[in-house]
Design goal:
mainly alpha, Arc Repressor Mutant, subunit A, two-stranded antiparallel sheet, DNA-binding transcription factor activity, transcription regulation, transcription, HTH_MarR-typ
Length: 149
């Protein structure tokens, strides 16, 4: 469905405003679809993101600063997300033996198992993007990279 129909607005200031609104709207649309997929697993999008980062680091622990650097949503409160994941026993926190000011965060076996179960969603997290050809997906990615440049 076209953005005009989605938000019931027929006129835009210019093509740039229309593109901006479309990017923001589509980003939120994708987030909502993913959140619906993740709800049965009891994790939020930022928690899933942190778990994936930790799985990529495994068995090497991560720090909160590393998580912040790698998170998709830079506005998320990484410390609070780790608190919630620790309460669910999906991660552990321990003081770093070589630097007492640093806390090491490590994904647990339970966290790894949860991600493996969530991997069974297959391309479910790619809702909407699979309607693009590989060439269109590459073009979209290149255009988004260009916007951020």
């Amino acid at each position: 469905m076209k953005i005009e129909e989605e938000i019931k607005q027929s006129a835009f200031k210019d093509v740039y405003q229309k593109a901006y609104i479309n990017v923001v709207y589509t980003s939120n649309w994708l987030d909502q679809r993913q959140a619906t997929l993740f709800k049965p697993f009891g994790v939020t999008l930022p928690q899933y993101n942190v778990l994936r980062i930790l799985r990529g680091q495994y068995p090497t622990p991560a720090t909160v600063n590393l998580l912040i650097d790698r998170m998709l949503d830079k506005t998320s409160n990484a410390s609070r997300i780790v608190d919630k994941l620790e309460a669910k026993e999906l991660v552990t926190r321990k003081q770093c033996p070589t630097d007492r000011r640093t806390v090491d965060i490590l994904i647990t076996e339970k966290g790894l198992n949860l991600l493996q179960e969530m991997d069974s969603l297959g391309d479910g997290g790619l809702i909407g993007l699979k309607s693009l050809t590989p060439e269109e997906a590459e073009q979209l990615s290149s255009l988004l990279d260009k916007i951020r440049s």
